[in-house]
């Protein structure tokens, strides 16, 4: 196994992609690689040194590698599309991208490096446009489409992930050089976030994300945490956001709230409160992951 993973890591580095080790059978940076973007490398000797220590999965740092990766995910069995995307033919992220292309009268950008993910989703690798300041997004393009760029990483081909929500190997489906990110997608990713300014109301955040359609205990919890983030004082906003993500992550793990809805509402609230999109995204993901390890049931 280590030999195979070294081969995959070297293949990625040969393309100019900066790699670093993830936990065996996992998706998180290996302990000691907290500053993974700084540790990521294309140096074959360093890669040999890292991966001979164990069967570590492969992380690809998108920023240093000049990559923008579209993550087209598939929903879990009990995760229907939100009302905005509850349309004929829309079942997963790939369907959403196809509809976006149709609406923009653009071809599907399939002639690029493509990886099948462990749960049957797809990673489309693109070269970042020169001068573009592209970070990470969650659902900005549409349901079940996330992007990774500066400040983000993806699990690389050859990695095997075994987690409660699915297990499998990341496999290369199509191996040309990454195509340049289509201009119309770059424009959508750099366009201003729909207007939710500092001081916006909790109701406006929920309405913008579809969270106002949640019911009962779920809506109460979502409203409370969004309001906490919006009301947080300067200097406490990131901690408040992390606590909110943890609490809502517990409910998402219990099936009370869809994770994509939690991500969208907290991202909007955090940006409205004054946090940067990149900082908010990282905090939300960290808090959600932690909360989902400790599911909490709704009150009876």
Number of strands: 12
Distance between the termini: 47 Å
The shape, in one word, is globular
Number of domains: 3
**Helix content bin:** 40-55%
Structural Rg: 19 Å
Major sheet: size, sense and barrel closure? 7 strands, mixed
Find the structural class using helix and strand composition.
Answer: alpha+beta
Strand proportion, as a percent range, falls in 15-25%
Low-confidence segments, ≥5 residues, pLDDT <50?
A: 195-199
Q: Give the averaged pLDDT, no decimals.
A: 86
Count helical runs.
11
Secondary-structure element pattern, one letter each: HEHHEHEHEEEEEEEEEHHHHHH
List keywords for this structure.
single chain; 300 residues; alpha+beta; Signal recognition particle alu RNA binding heterodimer, srp9/1; 3 domains; seven-stranded mixed beta sheet; three-stranded antiparallel beta sheet; 11 helices; 40% helix; 17% strand; globular
